[in-house]
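Exam review. A common question shows you a sequence with its structure tokens and asks you to describe the fold in words. Practice with the pair below. Do the first one on your own.
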Amino acid sequence: MKTALILCAGYGRRMGGKIKPLMKVGGREILYRTIKLLKDNGLERFLVVVNEKNFKPIEDFLKSNEVDYEIILNPHPEKGNGYSFYLAKEKIKEKFVLVMGDHIYGEDFIKSAINGEGLICDRNPRFVNLSEATKVFVEDGRAKRVDKKLDNFCCVDTGFFVLTPDIFKVAEEIVRRKEVVSLSEIMEKANIKVTFVDGLFWMDIDTEEELKKANRIVVRSSYKGIGDGFIARNLNRKISLRISEILVNHITPNQATLISFFIGMLSSLLNFISIPLAGIVYQISSILDGIDGEIARASLRTSKFGGWLDSVLDRYVDFSFLLTLSFLSNLNNFEWFIASLAIFGSFMVSYTTERYRGAFFRDFYKEFNFKFPGKRDERIFLIFIFCLFSFLGKFVIISLLILIALITNLRVLATILVVSRRYL
């Protein structure tokens, strides 16, 4: 199965005539998300049914994204989505996937649905307005009734189908005798087989409110929690995810990385003006440090370069902040030794886990349930708190440096012991 048919010929009247497949959710056009996830699951050829109004914008979009596509023009969208479907009958000779251009699907949903057969239905639709959804009554594993107004139904139509070309015979029969044809009629007449994919993310985008809801869900589902420290889990992510919801359709992950970096470097310079203010800005940079990964995952833009750049720039920020803080504290030789241990330990916390990835080609935090304190978010929050009380005197900064030196270097030692137990 290599072909997908995507129906994009609707007028989008409930969205003010906007081209719904080209509207962004989680930093990517709905059409892009669908094609990308289908390509990731082995599909290669995309037939896209459009109307005269959206023909040029959709074709330009497909060209710019290097998609193996063929446009099918529907000159009469008013005849219904069943008619749009029927227009592809001469183009498909093998088993294929049919999806709606204004539906958004999660990765897990598509991975499951693509292995199904017939109409993919959801018995636990968690993300859609049930009153607006197309209901399906299933009997002996097949769709007996398909209609939005059903009172007695078993599941909801997800707008995702895995079909064979035989279905076009049924479509042709209905098109010959009716002026307006819906997909629901075709599937009901064909007594199509039903496969259940329950409770996974999918939505039909018909209104601005649903667009905002889908954007929020996509961004929040991008947070995996692996590798986060206590502060990130319980404070930073609660704020960063809200910021990512706002920014995801406007900036790239690398731009988000640079924003966090420059704010972090600004916090280092602010040490020369006000250490409490510097600590606040440093904590803000720590919160913002999460948005690049959230935006990257939500917008399907994760890359090795992005992760590498983020890690490198974080080291510059941490080194600069502790160095300027130490420099302004008039340390003696022994105190500078403590400061060096704190700076070195902060670097080594990241280095040990990154080197694990480089040596073993696996994520340290996925391999080990490691709860020892000292991750970057925890260190920055600790620094932030101590900076707020720096007005009490030099001993506050010295105490902070001792604490950072102890926590980080003990964490590195614990990491070495954990890894050693597995491999020695």
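Now try the second one, then compare your answer with the model answer below.
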Amino acid sequence: MMTHDRYPRVRSRVRWFKPIGGVGLHFQRVVSVTTLAVLLSSLAWAERTPLRPGWNLFSVEQDIEAGQQVSKDAERQLPMLGNSRVDNYLSDLGRRLAAKAPGEKYLYRFKAVNDRAINAFALPGGPVYINRGVIEAADNEAQLAGVMAHEIAHVALRHGTNQASKAYAAQVPLSILGGIVGGNSVGAMLAQLGAGFAVNSILLKYSRTAESQADIMATQILYDSGYDPRAMAQFFEKIQTQDRGGHSVEFFSNHPNPENRIQRVTEEVSRLGGSQRAYNAGTGEFADVKRNVQSLAGSEPRRTESSDAGARPEWPSDRWVRFENSLLRMNYPDNWQAYEQGDAVTIAPRGGLVADNSGNQALAYGVIVNVYEPHRDPYGQQLQGPGYRQDSWMLLEQATDQLVEEFRRSNRSMRVVRSHENMEVQGERALSTYLSNDSPVGGRETNWLITMEHPEGLLFFVFSAPDRDLRNYEGVFRQMLYSVQIKN
């Protein structure tokens, strides 16, 4: 129950009537206490941060259809735990949490993945997957509930298809979007966006704004379910400390860490009425389930072999063609292929994209071009948007360091070889950074990273080739870079 001194104006509205006999006194106190509870509950709902899904081309039914299609893909690629006791426990806990989620009442499904990496993800329409690593890392049921509530919030706020809608709108004129989305099958739209199940799928790539919204809604869900929302903040703080300590946490590879995460959760708890005296301690099953998970064998993702793995692609052609999108123009060999997703593009030869150890498409030969949205520097200066081009050289270095850190979070074997070397691209200042990483075709690879200031954020190029072939590709990469023409 809330302490009265937090809400003096509410307390003053409760009138204690003069009793008429003992029974009357008891009845009147019950009515007054009930009235107080209703008033406090109404106040908590009035002050909670309002949240609603963003702009979306997809219908709710298409969310569900997309989630069903992609979940089949996911369960073919992922090492599912397949333990009925664990899955049943997650389902029971998840259903209780989802019952408190606002908006559409999706048919949520919860399953465990046999991977010790600390990660979880949700697909549109309700499928939620929890790595065993989350269960093993959580200290109590409230922390596990916090991760699950966060994923439920992504579904309720329709973040996956919101991202897909923005990517789709970048490819198709607005005047015909409605007709295309209404007439096309969900499968065709997902295929066009490259939004199947993959680490870099648009359905799983959230912005920091989306992460902050999911934190806020998860706080509300936990509070309404009787769990201490601070447990979620404690869990994120715990794994954030691990990540900073050199033990890369996979969760942050597709859940970018928003600024002031712990503080924002605490603020939302205050909006909801402050800490409760007694929080839900859980069903008592958590400790048994955690011990059960820790005793199970097999913790690594299944290795998916590719027929192209280890094979060298055809040598780049002497004939070149031009790629163009809203960011730039760039030439590339005519026997290579450009794969677009919004403003991002991957240009690679046939056989340059291969399946990695998790069955996802990884770039072995070629280049990725995209824009990264850096967050503010420690002094509060903005590293993107209006005025970004007028900022100092140091901000470009800071934004580059942020991007490299993002890469290292999702590539545990990545190392910086050379960094912050000045160069020019189309007469504009740029930084050159060399990274070394495990190659999806075996051995090590070199990733040559070029970063530049851009009105949209940090424009970057990543040229990749296995070390055994790097010397043969360096000339091609430089010729591609020298052909770049930036659009402002």
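Model answer, second protein: The longest strand covers residues 415-425. The longest helix spans residues 21-47. Full marks require stating both points clearly.
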